[in-house]
């Protein structure tokens, strides 16, 4: 364990001494780092792990003849839509406008809506596209005609997991919030795909032992990772239809719902599959129990006949265009896969069996992040927990509430998101 990591853990423990109700690191933090020494996930100097992000949002706009309801806001709302023949044409105009804005900022970007082919280019371009699950904000503008809203999904190309790639995702968020009156209502999410690298432009296949390690960690610590997400992304509500709990909604979870030892037996069921010849048995066991929905940790893309997009999809994070939140969650998602890829098999099984019955306060999400080698992200979430009680569902701070670059005070120009949701300080 490096001196800097030891100091980071000490700083975290000192921080949480002042906030005893938060999920602080326990005395296990240092021991976990000694148990799981950091192993490089780079080959020939390059990262092995790959990731991609999906950003969901709504863009506000007005018709050409309408008056801007908030003219003091410098972000564009008129001129996004210039023709109003039919709804499909409107959608195309919104997507094309976003595409051109990102291009002007130096982001390689395409849209798949009718005016440009994206065939063969998705691996190197950001893509502006439709998502029928995105609905406009519902308060208070459902009873006003000031704005029109169009749902948008923007997906990244696959990146190797490194700081520069995460920074580009944060830059895209900043471009969008600086140029558009954008909001992320409850129907939106941030989805992160993580793979094991590329071979000839295609994601590599997963080894069953790596996948079993990862899914066993997620099974044991799902309730700890839940602290990162608001309550509505854990249980109930509209948005949870698209990211239900793996413990509850998977085939394995359903089979154990009346079993008092469900945690332990679920863990053993997953670990038993690490020596399978492929990932199909794990995929079947931990996918949604029926229908087309996908659980919070979606591994449907790991079927043998899938040649592209062989990734785990983390679906639980709420919609946001806050660059630091997006990049931090990407670090967590990639860090979990890196841990599963490099950890000693006997040690991880012993670790999980000892921790499977722990209550969240006995082994916290901060402990877990430190154990997988992400103490830097643990510090970020520590400060978020201080500002927002992680057991509740407070209004999520919007990137639009931060001071604009011209030095104007927050809340004058960039309070659009809070007004949309009816949130008042």
UniProtKB/TrEMBL annotation:
Domain of life, source organism: Eukaryota
Comp. bias (Pro residues): 392-402
Family annotation (Pfam families): Amidoligase_2
Cited InterPro entries: Amidoligase_2 (IPR022025)
Disordered: annotated segments: 386-411
PANTHER family assigned: AMIDOLIGASE ENZYME
Protein name stated in the entry: Amidoligase enzyme
